[in-house]
Write a structure and sequence with these properties.
Layout lengths: L14 H5 L6 H5 L7 H10 L3 H11 L2 H15 L6 H15 L3 H13 L5 H10 L19 H16 L5 H16 L10
Length: 196
Amino acid sequence: MAGFDALKKVAVPKAAAVCRDIELDPQAVKCLEADPEPVEFLNALLERQLYPDAVRFLARALPKREAAWWACICTRGMMAQDAPPSSLKALEAAEQWVYKPTEANRRLAEAAAQATAFDGPAAWAAMAAFWSDGSMAPENSPPVTAPENLSSKAVAGAVMLAAVSREPEKAAEKYRYFLEQGADIANGGNGRPWQC
């Protein structure tokens, strides 16, 4: 896999600022020693095949809406034909929030994730949408703000679950594919760089 040239939508100049609240493998932490820019750090992770760390990093580095979209496209790409209807509804709710990030759509994403019993990547894509903004508390309750990194944890969970949900022996190949999609989103694309 070739490295990436840029991550235009990543707003921070140094990877360490993104990683301050991510649990990383010790090998990944070593890659921070040279104080790399985000794209340099992502490329170092890919070179070392530290794919889960690369997923966690990109999920945290992307703006929340773009990160949720990344979770959605990875999930949709791996969704089985016979997926439970609740999973499909959770994914559709997450996509609906990405297309139109309203409070009503955010709440619909949470309800759809709950209906899956939080099982599978679609549920976590929906929770990424829900945790992206607003209160985690029930409506008409005092607001409870989600921790800043909670949405990115859901995105990473969705992407990693999608990578192993079908044919887990091909997870490394799927991680590389998903990271290419994420990098495309990070550069203003739709996450489908191979479509015309």
